[in-house]
Design a protein that fits this description.
About 5% of the residues lie in helices and about 45% in strands. With about 280 residues, the protein is mostly beta strands. A hairpin with a 5-residue loop joins strand 13 and strand 14. The two termini are about 30 Å apart. Bound molecules: 6-O-phosphono-beta-D-tagatofuranose (TA6). This is glucose-6-phosphate 1-epimerase. Keywords: Isomerase. It comes from Ostreobium quekettii.
Amino acid sequence: DGDLPKVVLRCGDEPGGDKAEVYLHGAHVTSWIPEATGKEMIFVSKDAIFKPPKAIRGGVPVCFPQFSDMGPLGAHGFARNSAFEVQDGESDQVTLALRPSEEDLERWPQKFELRITVALSPGCLTQTMEVQNMGSSAMEFTCALHTYFRVEDVTNAQVKGLRGLTYLDNLQSRERFTEANACVEFSGEVDRIYCGAPDTIDLVDGAAGHSVVIEKTGFPDAVVWNPWVDKAASLKDFGDEEYKEMVCIEPAVAGSDPISLDAGKMWTAVQKFMTR
Ligand code: TA6
């Protein structure tokens, strides 16, 4: 995985306990191994490119200050392609910070500090996103923590908790639909922005016999994505068969109105994964 600098987090008594890894490039979480499952819970493609400015395929790309094509920047903004600095850290948590470069300010003329804190506790990984408006005028942004979860078999995985929600279907020009099913299952490409998603979403990995409970606060929406065969084949940093072992569940500001943050103010949002 290249020679990019990364932080290894641990909690509990070694050699047991829980472990996670975060690259400074993009403040990119690439691993979470809770003792409770003893398994890697985060998907990273075997073809991932660990070379800036490419975003690492998999893990938790930090999509900021723009989700997808919802603005003037390239897909998902520039934070995931940027070098963060360590601002604070202990053995079980780290805070990484990004301020826009001159080049960033040309493309997106807003002064901000983006802080990503990743904290480990037994069976739980908490990721906090803080945006500080350092400018003299209000700033607007969309964003997501674009999490790739590893699953043993995507055809035996379910995402629970979304029934009744309106979703924008990215595969049908973001037309609005209502989710009729208690479980979202996968038998083809899925790319949906669930608006006003509940703060608790379950990912059931039926084949592995465990679940991940995702608790979000501050993110109004949640994106669910699996590229399936054709999209997977079109991604050169993604193996053709790898769609079978991942599901993206992304706490986001993507279907609702962008966040508008007044000068000097701070916005914060959290995602928390727990094994069950
Ligand atoms: O979150 C889903 C999505 O917006 C998909 O439409 C797909 O483009 C995915 O993100 C990956 O985007 P990327 O720029 O990382 O290839």
